[in-house]
Design goal:
It contains 9 helices and 8 strands. The strands form 2 sheets. A 5-stranded parallel sheet has the order 2-3-1-4-8, sandwiched between helices. It has a 3-stranded antiparallel sheet with strand order 6-5-7. It is globular. It has a domain of 110 residues: Rossmann fold (3-Layer(aba) Sandwich). Strand 5 and strand 6 form a beta hairpin. It is an alpha/beta fold. Bound molecules: adenosine-5'-diphosphate and zinc ion (ZN).
Amino acid sequence: MKKILILLGPPGAGKGTVGEKLSEILNLPLISTGDLLRESVKNNTDLGKKAKIYMEKGELVPDEIVLAIVEGRIKEDDCKDGFILDGFPRNLNQAEILWKFIEKEKVKVIYLKADDEFLVQRLSNRRICEKCGAIYHLINIPPKVDEICDKCGSKLIQRQDDKEEVVRNRLKVYYNLTSPLLDYYRKKNILFTIAGDGKLEEIVSEIIKIEKNA
Ligand code: ADP
Ligand code: ZN
């Protein structure tokens, strides 16, 4: 059986950072739809050009685009033992389609919980590496050298959608469309809630424990 972890939570709760760590420890690929979409935008593909319009406003990219990306990715060879999903699913339609693919596997959903002011504060201080996508926080996880990625030496940038007004819209979209998934997975008895505002190592070790328990 494949091991599948779904990271759920508002933007800025730490899904990406936690996902990276889990991916290393559990040796499962991390599939971030946000990263995959940003990659298509950067490469200026047809799909990327469409997605960009939505992403800049903090709106969801249409399901058919996202689903095509995810379907392609989870069929790849490195996903045969399982994978970690970050940023997908993000509405009920995506969740239901995903469920048809994975209902026979060992699935756990981790809900990283955090309140709005914390999220806005965290996102406005977030910087990412333009090359490798590594994530920093100006106060909590600063790079060793100002504005430079520890891992690859490239420049750090602020995502266009981390500007405060776009962040507020992303939160609104999250409450309207994504938060209903909490009940959806709670009813299936596979939802585990963790405070997203704790220490990274503690969050990660709690999730590892959850993952190990059958
Ligand atoms: P965050 O979770 O911090 O908001 P992401 O990097 O996951 O950031 O997503 C950035 C943007 O990419 C979203 O605001 C949305 O436009 C788009 N996106 C990512 N995943 C999905 C998805 N599953 N469905 C629709 N749009 C998505
Ligand atoms: Zn880098």
